[in-house]
Structure formats: C-alpha cells, structure tokens
Design goal:
It is built from 8 helices and 9 strands. It is α/β, with parallel strands linked by helices. The strands form 2 sheets. A 7-stranded mixed beta sheet has the order 4-3-5-1-7-8-6. A two-stranded antiparallel ribbon has the order 2-9. α3 links the parallel β3 and β4. The protein is globular, with a radius of gyration of 17 Å.
Length: 209
Amino acid sequence: MKSYVIHFIRHGAIDETLLGKYIGTTDAELSDKGKAELRRLDFENKYPYAKVVFTSPLKRCTQTCKILYPDIKPLVIDNLSECSFGEWEGKTADELKDDADFQKWLAGDNSVKPPRGESNADFVRRICKMFESIVEGLMKTGTTESVIVTHGGVIMTLLSVYGLPQAKPFEWAMESGCGYSIRITPMLWQRGKVSEVYQQIPVPKEDEE
C-alpha cells in the first residue's frame, strides 16, 4: 500500500532565541552562526530529498530552505507560521515572570492568550487544520514525499497530535536545523489521523542505508 512520507525540519538558529526571547511571528532572520551551522549539518549529514518543499513565510524558514534546498522553489504557507506571542514578542520569561496571564499560559491554560496574540487553543486549531489540508493535497496528487520547513513549536505540536509513539509536545523538542520524518498510511490516517514517526533528521552519512 502506498504511504506518504513528510520530513519536518526546524529552521536554523536566530540570535533572539539564543537570548531567550519569545519570537513567534516576529520576522527575524537567521544569524550568521545559524547559517554556518546549517551548512555544517548539511555537509556532515544527509537531509532528505523531496521535489515538494513547504515553508513558513517567515525569513528564518525561507532562508533555511535556500541553504538546504537551493534548487527547489518552496511553497509558502502562511499557516505554517509560529504562534503569535502578541505583546510578549521579543521578551524573555524573566521579563514576563510577574504577568499573571503569562504564568497561566506557561502552565498550559488554553483559554489564556498573550495580549494581541494567539491562544494555545487557537494555535493548535490553526496548524492542525493546515496540516490536514496538506496531507489531503499530497494524497490527491499522489505526492509520496515532501519536506516541511517550519518552527519548533509547530513541529512539536503536530507530532504530539498526530505522531506515534504518542508523546507530549516537549518530548519532541529538537535543535535548530533538525527534525523528524513521519510516515502516513492512508488507511490509518482515515481511521484515526495518526502517523508513524520513524527517524530523526538529518541522518548521519554513516547511517545511510
């Protein structure tokens, strides 16, 4: 039976994240160190190849695509963007520690959202709807392998919802430039919308079959 493979890759590093700042929809660019690290990872390891690459519209993702997949024009999808942290964008947890709403949000209260931002519930709803539409499109077109370059929060959330083995979002955490590959079997997807998480990427060259 035909299966569909999707490779999730987190964008390269940005200075703001290294400083501990909440960066969601802020359009930060890759740092020089982040670009160099992506090139090193690409040289020392094997990133999966696919004819179709989807990306978040934010620069740190489109720039990652240009480094890892320079010969492919990615399909930009707005709803692959990271969660909007609203007025908390660019601030650290230490700067927000006295904000009662921030503490509730950090504890996972889905009813709380950053001022002028996006609640956890709205974020999950948005990216799940987007992901299911991508899978539907891949199946309709018979596209059996694709890459999604997006944000850590997006990947961790989607894997916690659709991935097997089941795990909490934080258990799917990954470094910049890294990610996971999933395999979707149409019958299992139609029954319960689940997928098999079968490898971490990039794959060390010595591990290639």
